[in-house]
Write a structure and sequence with these properties.
Layout lengths: L8 E2 L4 E5 L4 E6 L1 H7 L2 E5 L6 E2 L4 E7 L3 E5 L4 E6 L2 H4 L3 H4 L8 E5 L11 H8 L1
Antiparallel strand pairs: 1-2, 2-3, 3-9, 4-6, 5-8, 6-7, 8-9
Length: 127
């Protein structure tokens, strides 16, 4: 059974979003996604300043099983990336909702988050 925290929003493509009150959001991949991928060996993330549109690819995760594109769940400008994943991509497997976060965005279309799944809907999607 995958871990699906109630305080996050989820994309069908298995990314999660944690919204902050200051108009920013933290993005990563779900526990279900990291478990499906297996041991993650490489994470490619965009540069700070990149402008992402909801649904557009923003990077790649490679594992012993496969390479998978990452998709922006919401639109925004990248304000920070998790550089620690360069040296320790396995952090995504160990703590996908914590230390394994991937990027932080300044939202350009905050209302888009309402279209994402809540925890119950996402749990139903992956059941």
């Amino acid at each position: 059974m995958s871990n699906v925290p109630a305080d996050l929003r989820y994309a069908k493509s298995h990314e999660w979003v944690k919204l902050a009150d200051d108009g920013t959001a933290t993005v990563g991949i779900t526990d279900y996604a990291q478990n499906s991928l297996g041991d993650i060996t490489f994470v490619q993330l965009p540069k700070v300043g990149a402008v992402l549109a909801a649904g557009s690819p923003f990077g790649v995760v490679e594992s012993v099983k496969a390479a998978s594109d990452l998709y922006a769940p919401v639109s925004g400008t990248v304000i920070e990336v998790n550089a620690a994943l360069d040296a320790a991509p396995e952090t995504v497997n160990q703590d996908s909702y914590g230390a394994g976060w991937m990027l932080k965005l300044r939202l350009t279309q905050p209302a888009e988050a309402a279209a994402l799944h809540d925890a119950a809907a996402y749990a139903g999607l992956i059941a």
